[in-house]
Design a protein that fits this description.
Layout (H helix, E strand, L loop, with lengths): L2 E5 L5 H10 L3 E5 L3 H9 L3 E2 L3 H5 L4 E4 L4 H15 L5 E4 L5 H13 L3 E4 L2 E2 L2 H6 L2 E6 L5 H8 L3 E8 L3 H29 L4 H9 L6 H4 L23 H18 L4 H18 L8 H5 L9
Parallel strand pairs: 1-2, 1-4, 2-3, 4-5, 5-6, 8-9
Antiparallel strand pairs: 7-8
Helix pairs in contact: 1-2, 4-5, 8-11, 8-12, 11-12
The structure holds nicotinamide-adenine-dinucleotide.
């Protein structure tokens, strides 16, 4: 049994904290939203009234917050001044690499071990305890981070030093955004050429165009395995989330001098799609933008 502080109990953090309680850890949970706190309590966590209270005697502190500014301020103002320096600090939020490195440096200066450990997999994987974690930490801290993350994980991979987890996350999601747009364009062209979508799916799945966006997450309804396309593009991975990650990738590219023209194009297309009122739709719904058929989508 480990004493865990869990900060940020939203769509992702709620299920993740529940999985820590499920395996018998003592989880002190905090969120600004009373409903999220109540959900964590119902799942076996101990709801507390402040971050300071949650971290006071924790051996592991896990955060799952919206973005970089939230992580910076919660660490600087609440976790680092109040946690035991022997505690292992793990941030699972998706944030910019610079914020992750800044928080890691502040934590190290106070004698803490710190890991950035963003996740791949959505709310269903968070609930099921089958997330993939990509971890940036000192190599010596990785075994402890891996053990702490395992009740929430399908796989935990060491990416490198602090910040490397966030770097892996934004590179992966930039690749995902680009590959989904490529798959959508290919279906839109196939349609114009009179090629049936199910025929194209079968051929490309077994040819060199094969990729995850095609075979596992096909953007065309009724083709391949069930995906958000079969549910009117509800649920899944929201366009707003994809856009957040593409923006992080473009900011990182600008700062590092990397050339990412496909990532830039993907960001522009997803920004356009979100701006047209579809930020809440699954990111594969962007196929309707490329088909010029947005009237079929209800704005969300
Ligand atoms: P969310 O908005 O549902 O949850 C964030 C929670 O943080 C909210 O409940 C909010 O009240 C809480 N919070 C904000 N500021 C706080 C503070 N100062 N103290 C305590 N609690 C605070 O977001 P989410 O969908 O759970 O995503 C969390 C992170 O995971 C994000 O960085 C997101 O990019 C990443 N992520 C999300 C998904 C997904 O499918 N939802 C997938 C992979 C990664």
């Amino acid at each position: 049994m480990t004493r865990i502080a869990f900060i940020g109990l939203g769509n992702m953090g709620g299920g993740m904290a529940a999985n820590q309680a499920r395996v018998g850890h003592a989880v002190a949970a905090f969120d600004l939203a009373p409903a999220a706190l109540a959900r964590a309590q119902a799942a076996g966590c101990r709801a507390v009234g402040a971050v300071a209270e949650a971290v006071a005697d924790a051996e592991v502190v896990i955060t799952m917050l919206p973005a970089g500014p939230h992580v910076r301020s919660v660490y600087q103002d609440e976790i680092l001044p109040n946690a035991d320096p022997r505690a292992l600090l793990i941030d699972c939020s998706t944030i910019d690499v610079d914020s992750a490195r800044a928080v890691a440096a502040q934590a190290a200066a106070k004698g803490f071990r710190f890991a950035d450990a963003p996740v791949s997999g959505g709310v269903m994987a968070a609930d099921a305890g089958t997330l993939a974690f990509m971890v940036g930490s000192a190599g010596t801290d990785f075994p402890a981070a891996e053990a702490a993350l395992s009740p929430m994980a399908r796989v935990v991979i060491h990416a490198g030093e602090p910040g490397a987890g966030q770097a892996a996350k934004i590179c992966n999601n930039m690749l995902l955004g680009v590959s989904m747009l490529g798959v959508c364009e290919a279906f839109a062209l196939a349609e114009k050429l009179g090629l049936a979508a199910d025929r194209f799916f079968e051929i490309a799945s077994k040819s060199s165009g094969q990729c995850w966006s095609l075979t596992t997450y096909c953007p065309v309804p009724g083709v391949g395995p069930e995906t958000p396309a079969d549910r009117g593009y509800g649920g899944g991975f929201a366009t707003a989330m994809m856009l957040k990650d593409l923006k992080l990738a473009q900011e990182a590219a600008a700062r590092s001098g990397a050339a990412t023209p496909m990532g830039a194009q993907a960001e522009a297309l997803y920004a356009l799609f979100a701006g047209l009122g579809h930020a809440g739709k699954d990111f594969s719904a962007v196929i309707e933008l490329l088909r010029g058929r947005l009237d079929g989508l209800s704005a969300a």
